[in-house]
Amino acid sequence: MANTNDFFVSAPGKAILHGEHAVVHGKVALAVSLNLRTYLRLETTTTGKVCINLPNIDTFLCWNLTELKQLLPYSSKGEEMKRLDPELVQRLREFVGVTNGNLDTCNMATLSFLYLYLSLFGSSELPSLTLSVWSELPTGAGLGSSAAYSVCLAAALLSARGAIPTPLKEWDHTGRWCQEDLELINIHMVLYFPSVPLLRILLTNTKVPRSTKVLVARVKDKINKFPSIMTPVLDSVDAVSCTCEKVLSEMTSEPITGEHYNILEELIDINQHHLNVMGVGHPALDTLCRVTLTRGLHSKLTGAGGGGCGITLLRPETDSVVVQSTVQDLRDCGFDCWETSIGGPGVQQHAPLSVKEEVLEILNRY
């Protein structure tokens, strides 16, 4: 059971529909929210400590407020920090024990939390609190788990600091912040399409690890080597994103037709070929596309590529037997696969009593 004084917030993952890698080169990338969410619970305490609980990676860490206060640069203790403080970043890296530049998931999550916590509360008395964060999203799979985590942290800590109001009204189950407050929270750097129809998809995790940094460098090298070939490819990727945006807009303002889905499927196929040309495909992703196509379904990678995840569009009339058979075929390939949807709500606050019991149970594991 949740304490009615606890603060709950959630944020969705994201899928890149089109434009992977193009945004790095000044083009449009089109991202939509996934109906898979990251949940955060903030509890105020009187322990004299600040703690963070991360059940996804079996991590629970606590620090005394006195030792955290010592990390603040003297120049920052009297005022709220408005920009990135490199001195604080370096102090935190040393405090966490990261000095060689190799950050694992736990270290990145810890540094993000401590930096935001100290940045927001460093000019006042540091509060005792415990944050528990759990995600339905797989980490490191190109589905925006890091962004969702950061958005939840920002929303919860900004609200606790009083920098933004809590949007939840009495008797409401959920509340959304106004646009001005969302701008303080938002950290996305792609065209995040806010109004899309609810589209059914299969989400498949090939479980092939990949490095976004390596893949970005690969694309850049190819562009430098073949500029006259790759520049038109990037222009075409940009056009695919813009065309998809136009179709999604039509689907929210007029009756949805089979032709809308025909265009979306064609764009998926075109974009997947673009991504292979750019050098960010992978045999596992080829297998995903081939297996789903035998069932008449269209798939593409999402995120950086080179493995990771792919999405498969499901039409409204797609039979459940076809869906279940496709999911089983993909699991037989060694992949994780489940049905979900895109077009869900963005970051939002939840009333404590409205949070699902299974989510509460996980958030309470520490």
UniProtKB/TrEMBL annotation:
An individual GO BP term: isopentenyl diphosphate biosynthetic process, mevalonate pathway
Any Gene Ontology CC annotation: cytosol
EC number(s) reported in the record: 2.7.1.36
Gene Ontology MF terms: ATP binding; metal ion binding; mevalonate kinase activity
The keyword Metal-binding is assigned to this record: yes
Transferase keyword on record: yes
GHMP kinase C-terminal domain sequence ranges: 263-324
InterPro entries: GHMP_kinase_C_dom (IPR013750), GHMP_kinase_C_sf (IPR036554), GHMP_kinase_N_dom (IPR006204), GHMP_knse_ATP-bd_CS (IPR006203), Mev_gal_kin (IPR006205), Ribosomal_Su5_D2-typ_SF (IPR020568), Ribsml_uS5_D2-typ_fold_subgr (IPR014721)
Broadest EC class assigned to this enzyme: transferase
Pathway per the UniProt entry: Isoprenoid biosynthesis; isopentenyl diphosphate biosynthesis via mevalonate pathway; isopentenyl diphosphate from (R)-mevalonate: step 1/3
Protein name: mevalonate kinase
